[in-house]
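Objective 1b: paired records.
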Amino acid sequence: MPTNPKKSEDRPEGDRIAKLLARAGIASRREIERMIAEGRITLHGKAVETPATFLTSLRGVSVDGKAVGPAEPSQLYAFHKPTGLLTAERDFTGRATIYDALVNALPQGTPRVMPIGRLDLNTEGLLLLTNDGGLKRKMELPTSGIPRTYRARAFGDVSQEQLESLADGVEIEGVRYGSINANMERSAGRNQWIEVVITEGKNREVRHVLEYLGLKVNRLIRTAYGPFELADLPRGQAVRIRKGDLDRFVSTLKQNQKTAHKQGGTPENPSA
């Protein structure tokens, strides 16, 4: 009778340092890997040489000479991202990033936060931020099924029937996009306002799909991410999501993921 294979005895205990630091809200895993390469992260006073450093805790770890303290409780913020800002830690060509705006937008005392997913340079609207790397990862996974709602202003002609055909999904240049809920809101000449709801969040998904239908998107606004809405939050401002609302959302998210796991769902690589 076959038996389950044993786990490799060569694997160190704990988790990779990049994973632990991301969970603690220091930065994304990718950014932490860059910080390690730059010698900015130390363990007991010695520079960490590889992201494949396994630890059971962050005791003795410092970033830029500052000891990493215990992880703070999960927090979530809504930010009204203007156009012209990169969703990135920094840009080596000198372009402005969301962090340039967040210096003045976030309440004083806010811990280090990371964006959940991305909005490209010319997309505006709701961008969620968190200090919890684990929550960030869960919310970005396509298997989470969290709806992202956009309003697109697009130039060209399209019918409601064409928009409804996106509910069956579509393949564009070898990329398969899942079911999309798209509805015409109103027209102004040949400019159409269209509401689009997606759940996968593939790279520039809304723009690619509408361009596939012959439209040219000239404005794109994300108005909601799951139950969290942009509402009347002023452009360039941020506000903390109430703890009770965050706790209820996390509870629902955990339940949905348990259901997906039982049904055989598997994680995919997120692409915002």
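Objective 1b, second protein:
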Amino acid sequence: MIVKSTNSKWKFYILANNSIFLIFVSSLFHSFWNILTQTSNNSQCFSALKGIWIIFIGVAYFLITGFPLEIGNELFMWALISGILHGFYILSLSRAYSTEDISYVYPIARSAPVFVPLFAWFFLGEKISLLVILAVLVIISAIYILHFDAKLINGLKNMCRAIKHNDMRWTFITLFLVVSYSLVDKMAMDKYMFYYPETPYSNGLTFFFLEAVIGFIICNIYIFNKIPRNEIMNNWSIDWGKCFLAGVATTFSYGLICVVLQFEKLSTIVSLRQVSVLMVVYWGCWKLNEPYGRKRILAGLLVILGVILISIDGSVQ
């Protein structure tokens, strides 16, 4: 990381010491747009219009700030690769949910924090401490406890059976794409920080809008070819307001992550983002009057423990 002035050092210090806070804010927005999607009439139509809103927001952003022609071909190439991976990730996840039960698909798709540290060490040279490894395992255990009704062993057995199941290929493709776009986005934001060290927030938003436009164009082409136009328009007329809110929330959610990627280890960020799962579960308890139960309390405590371990790791480095 290049620091060009005392003012830059101060900005980096403030951002680096607020990374966990920014990740939590991102998780809150991530939970919000997922809840909006979950409560929509048709999640695929909803995602298509949400993507169009994000494209409009991105156009407005570039009209205000100017289109970033100065970033050069290298950074545009990273955005293109990321956009393609994100586009196919959304399509792959929808295919996975259409072929198998969510009880199989969801935990596998959310298992990226288990694999990201290994690939981050191999491709990015990140040094992973024992505290971070322990935190990753604790947070993933919390997610599995939530999803398998505290029967963690049964959940792991389901995963082992799923590996041998031909219809699960889309689920594992989804997991592969999550790990892939995480690595690509981290490498891209490192490049942004190298070339433009004094503008981390605009770096994050610029990259997000570039890759999001590409990703949602891919998704919308698929959705418009798969779903009848009248069905799409009917769903849009009902959910257009919620789609706009989801587009704004998605922008803040991943835009903030792109900012934090310039300062923090990828393994730390991917692990802490799992807090959004817990937020959605607790929202379900509040909205649907479901009992919190011992499993949800245990999962919450495990997530808090994971966050504490990551915080301790950051303070000793």
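Residues 1-10 have pLDDT under 50 and may be disordered. The chain is about 85% helix and 0% strand.
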